[in-house]
Amino acid sequence: MNAASPGTKSLDLSGQKALVTGANSGIGRGVAIALAEAGAAVVVNYVSGDDAAAEVVDQITRSGGRAYTHRADVSSEPQVLVMFRRMVKEFGTIDILVNNAGLQRDAAFENMTLDQWNFVIGVNLTGQFLCAREAVREFKRRGVVKEVSCSAGKIICLSSVHEVIPWAGHVNYAASKGGINMMMRSIAQEVAPDRIRVNSIAPGAIRTPINTAAWKTPEAYAALMKLVPYKRIGEPDDVGRAAVWLASDHADYITGATIFVDGGMTLYPGFTENG
Ligand code: BGC
Description:
It is a single chain. With 275 residues, the chain is of the alpha/beta class. It has one domain (12-266): Rossmann fold. It is built from seven helices and seven strands. It has helices at residues 26-37, 50-62, 77-91, 114-142, 171-191, 218-225, 236-247, and strands spanning 17-20, 41-46, 67-71, 96-99, 153-158, 196-203, 258-261.
């Protein structure tokens, strides 16, 4: 182990301040709870569903963690600025941004309205841009505090297997996720000299409200399993654990990478006995 090595205790995120967007449900909720379990103080961002967001904060504080809810639409520049200003006031700074907020508005391509297109791009891609920009500004202002982390800040973008798997009927969503890939890698290249790490997690089918139709009935679940070599649906906690590791100093030399948490969905299982 060299002098800069984080050692084995560094999955501990205590002293770090995290913002998770869209943290009231699904993957965001799982990531917020996992980061808090690892010791981070967490801002639970959400845009609707006050009770669900409050419940995430309750769960964190009941286990001795620190968290508060903040309602903001990540696609709105003024609301994002207010959210970051409050976080710096309440927590002093930000060490970890998890750009998670995302949604689907599915339609056959020829029927897709400009509103459906703009809404999905606005939240999934522009929202990640706005939050990442504010995080980078604060990371650069503060710099490395080596008692906290050997990095000046970490950004984790929630992408999807659909950053590489085309998805008929979901052109707006797949385009937003493809965009996240190049945005993430370009930011990573730009801010690496400032010791800021930027990476993505690309989940496959995770059991959340966004894809209930894909797992709710036994027939749907069986059809889904044809796409998943590992033969189980993912759980929010599968993504939560990956996020904790990626945010920790264990992952200190990793930037510009996408980690697929997908049970092998991107392994093209359709080719197992075909092709
Ligand atoms: C989508 C889910 C889908 C999964 C796998 C995710 O990005 O949001 O609806 O089940 O990809 O196709």
